[in-house]
Amino acid sequence: MNDSFYIPRMETPFFTHLTPADYEHIYEPAEDTFLLLDALEEDLPYIQRLRPALCMEIGSGSGVVITALAKTLGASSSYLAVDINTAACKATQGVGHRNGVSVDVVNGDLVSGFTKLMTVDLLVFNPPYVVTDSAEVKGTGVARAWAGGCKGREVMDRLFPDLPHLLSAQGIFYLVVILDNCLEEIEHVLARLGFSMTVVNDRKIRGEHLLVVRFVREQQCQL
Fold first, then answer.
1. Number of domains present in the structure of the chain
2. Of the candidates 7, 104, 184, 211, which lies 20 to 30 Å from 71 by C-alpha distance?
3. Bridge-partner residues for 130, per DSSP?
4. What CATH number did the domain enclosing 180 receive?
5. What CDD domains does its record include (predicted)?
6. CA-CA distances (angstroms) from residue 163 to 34, 108, 123, 172, 210?
């Protein structure tokens, strides 16, 4: 094969060992999961050139996304998953083990405590983005994986101020959103923090318009 025509691919991890009983407690991989995987695959040549030392997923759920990154990028990078749901932490560990990759898993709330300990080169977040009452954001069970409160942004908005401290100088951040999240406002908030935004991929499904957006520091070269 001529390498000039080689297109890097991301292999979807095995996760069929997860059962309907598991999905009563964790977010089942769905259209937004696979759109995020597609976006990462689209950017894979850039990600590989970046050679990220640390890849982190916030809200790993089943663990499919961080495991896909680990399978694709290999042992040259370290992988960290954080989820507030203990069942999701267990599932992420299981999917990583099932696919033969090493993923460190932490039960925690967003990036609390991490910003002073490390910097991240590749950060991904498929947040709770559905517009709901604020009370649902603080609920229990699997609903916390999708209930986003006002504008669907109450969880992701808490993360944004930590990004300048968490991301390395060359770090990139991938975020899943829907149009109801008011993307222009998100772009403005992140611009004030020194980041520029690019829409990598989008998909319309069942009345929702999903998008994956990429943020890099403004001084970085355009991809």
1. 1
2. 211
3. 147
4. 3.40.50.150
5. AdoMet_MTases
6. 24, 17, 9, 10, 22
**pTM score, whole prediction:** 0.92
Q: Which two tokens stand for residue 33?
A: 């999961």
The strand pair at 167-178 and 208-217 is best described as antiparallel
CA dist 151 and 201 (Å) reads 21
Is 22 domain-assigned?
no
SS (H, E, C) the chain: CCHHHCCCCCCCCCCCCCCCCHHHCCCCCCHHHHHHHHHHHHCHHHHHHHCCCEEEEECCCCCHHHHHHHHHHHHHCEEEEEECCHHHHHHHHHHHHHCCCCCEEEECCCCCCCCCCCCEEEEEECCCCECCCHHHHCCCHHHHHCECCHHHCHHHHHHHHHHHHHEEEEEEEEEEEEHHHCHHHHHHHHHHCCEEEEEEEEEEECCEEEEEEEEEECCCCCC
Asked whether residue 46 is domain-assigned, the answer is no
pLDDT averaged per 10 residues, the chain (length 223): 59 92 93 95 93 96 96 94 95 96 94 82 94 82 81 93 94 96 95 96 89 89 49
The reported pLDDT for the residue numbered 143 is 79
Range of the domain at 213: 54-217
Q: For the purposes of burial, counting CB atoms within 10 Å of the CB of 135, is it exposed (0-12), middle (13-18) or buried (19 or more)?
A: exposed
